[in-house]
């Protein structure tokens, strides 16, 4: 990962993407919310980091930019920055000029034409949606949006004439969305763990901190294992971007993140207790997001099936097939360094 990019993202988000900012954007639930921070991220070049240099970007590999995605998750950024980075890269490589506002990415509903469930749909200007017929660019100002619960996600219904067909090179939207989501989930889980660890070390019971009790330490160690595994899987997933292993890399990353999300979130709330579910306490800003992201672009069940099918199709025996997946990802990571 590029340490300079990661540190820069951390500095900007630590200062501007505060819990109060997140609450304000979530409460507004409208397209222009949070645009001052968005414009700053754009001006600093984060959103064009993956775009090839000859197209006006930084030409970074996703593996190098992964730290920025972790920071987006660690600060519960309520804007589709990771998705826009992916989208601008896709459009630039296809020779299509990207809109400058927030871009969401989604898979179309196979049963209802012109409909898609869109993460961050309420705060995006434009949508890249992929269906069996290919990918299209849809201005969300022309679409009908139906909000989901208290999140920023929406079911989007758009007229066929509003969808502008994109070149055939724009594909793999589902796996790219899953990969971006897995990386931001890794950052969110790290923040949840850090908050929980800080709480149990400060909270006193029977004359000593909660963190001194063996049962609490056991729960923390389980959480730490899931957080670390999710981060490693996300890093390997990002290393597979733009390689022949992209889909299996994304599948492993998203399956691992989705499996860990409820375990880390529930573990945190078990240790923090009733205060953790109050609106005033910041923990819920991250755990609500993790539960929602678990299902975005496919849950662990969906991606487990992809991984299993890949292993069956590429093995001569069980051990060789599973090891072969990770050998291929290691090779992809080595090529990106």
Automatic annotation (TrEMBL):
Its cofactor is FAD. One of its GO terms (molecular function) is acyl-CoA dehydrogenase activity. InterPro entries: AcylCo_DH-like_C, AcylCo_DH/oxidase_C, AcylCoA_DH/ox_N, AcylCoA_DH/ox_N_sf, AcylCoA_DH/oxidase_NM_dom_sf. Residues 3-98 form the Acyl-CoA dehydrogenase/oxidase N-terminal domain. Keywords: FAD, Flavoprotein, Oxidoreductase. Belongs to the acyl-CoA dehydrogenase family. This is Acyl-CoA dehydrogenase.
């Amino acid at each position: 990962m590029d340490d300079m990019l990661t540190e820069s993202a951390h500095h900007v988000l630590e200062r501007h993407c505060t819990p109060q900012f997140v609450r304000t954007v979530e409460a507004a639930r409208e397209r222009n919310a949070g645009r001052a921070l968005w414009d700053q991220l754009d001006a600093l070049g984060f959103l064009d980091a993956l775009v090839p240099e000859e197209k006006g970007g930084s030409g970074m590999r996703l593996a190098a930019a992964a730290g920025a995605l972790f920071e987006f998750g660690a600060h519960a950024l309520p804007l589709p920055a990771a998705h826009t980075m992916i989208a601008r890269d896709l459009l630039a490589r296809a020779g299509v000029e990207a809109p400058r506002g927030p871009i969401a990415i989604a898979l179309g509903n196979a049963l209802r034409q012109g409909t898609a469930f869109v993460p961050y749909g309420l705060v995006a200007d434009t949508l890249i949606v992929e269906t069996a017929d290919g990918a299209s660019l849809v201005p969300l100002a022309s679409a009908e949006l139906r909000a989901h619960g208290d999140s920023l996600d929406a079911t989007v219904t758009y007229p066929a004439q509003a969808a502008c067909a994109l070149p055939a090179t724009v594909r793999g939207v589902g796996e790219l969305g899953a990969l971006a989501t897995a990386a931001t989930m890794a950052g969110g889980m790290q923040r949840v763990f850090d908050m929980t660890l800080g709480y149990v070390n400060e909270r006193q019971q029977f004359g000593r901190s909660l963190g001194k009790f063996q049962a609490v330490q056991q729960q923390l160690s389980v959480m730490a294992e899931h957080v670390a595994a999710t981060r490693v899987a996300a890093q390997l997933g990002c290393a597979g971007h733009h390689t022949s292993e992209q889909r299996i890399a994304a599948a492993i990353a998203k399956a691992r993140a989705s499996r860990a999300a409820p375990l880390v979130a529930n573990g945190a709330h078990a240790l923090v207790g009733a205060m953790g579910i109050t609106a005033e306490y910041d923990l819920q800003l991250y755990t609500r997001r993790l539960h929602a992201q678990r299902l975005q672009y496919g849950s662990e069940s969906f991606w487990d099936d992809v991984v299993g099918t890949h292993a069956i199709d590429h093995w001569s025996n069980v051990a060789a097939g599973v090891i072969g997946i990770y050998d291929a990802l290691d090779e992809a990571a080595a090529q990106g360094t």
